[in-house]
What does this fold into?
Amino acid sequence: MPRRDDIQSILIIGSGPIVIGQACEFDYSGTQACRVLREEGYRVILANSNPATIMTDPDFADATYVEPLDAEVLTKII
It folds into this structure.
């Protein structure tokens, strides 16, 4: 897929609370998405309600919000 120059920032919405034993898959895919998008030069903004996930590490996104994942909060972030 070619890089889109009309997009500068991308919002990644995390999975929020997860069941024990399922965290690895969500964390891995989310952190990989953040890593690749930043390498491509996009500004990555992450929203996740789970502070215990590796995705909320400040090194993975340009801006990280640990907030409830509801429409009101996400609208304010956007």
